[in-house]
Amino acid sequence: MEKELVVESILQRLTELNRSIPRRKSPASRREHVETSRMTAGTMDEFEAEAIADALEGMVTDLEAVLDEAAAKVYEQCLDVYYTAEEMARTPEHAPLAAHVERMRAAYEQSYGRAVPTREETEARRKASPSTIA
Question: Is the entire prediction scored with pTM above 0.85?
């Protein structure tokens, strides 16, 4: 297979893979990536290699953005579960949940190095930045 066809095939496959990435609600930071990439190729081989590298970097940027958004969504959902469990643990019929809530609190503090935000703090943050809520 000719080299030109290999490069074209690679770029086409990268385009297909990129199209399969679930799209975010907010525009991808791809524009930032494009603005910072500078092709410095002197030969056609270098140009082709840089085109492939640029396509890969762009796809990585898109994937990171999608994963960051998914992680933020899961974080918010976990806080909601925590607040619900915390509230339920205060009732006599759900008192055994208190031990689970304590383990959740300890795990949060170990992971994030700070106390779990109060429901009020979370709601205020969500109002200030509604894009973090799914």
Answer: no
Ramachandran region, residue 90 (left: φ > 0; alpha: ψ -120 to 50; beta: rest) = alpha
Whether 30 and 21 have beta carbons less than 8 Å apart is answered as: no
Task: Give tens-digit pLDDT for 59-88.
Answer: 999 899 999 999 999 999 999 999 999 999
DSSP string over the chain: --HHHHHHHHHHHHHHHHHTSPPPSSPPTHHHHHHH-----SSHHHHHHHHHHHHHHHHHHHHHHHHHHHHHHHHHHHHHHHHHHHHHHTSGGGTTHHHHHHHHHHHHHHHHSSPPPPHHHHHHHHHH-GGG--
> Which residue in this structure is represented by tokens 């490069």?
7
pLDDT tens-digit readout, 20-49: 888 765 555 554 555 555 667 678 888 888
Name, in order, each residue with C-beta under 8 angstroms of 59's C-beta and a sequence gap of 6 or more: 14, 17, 18, 21
Give the tokens for residue 79: 């806080």
CB of 28 closer than 8 Å to CB of 65: yes
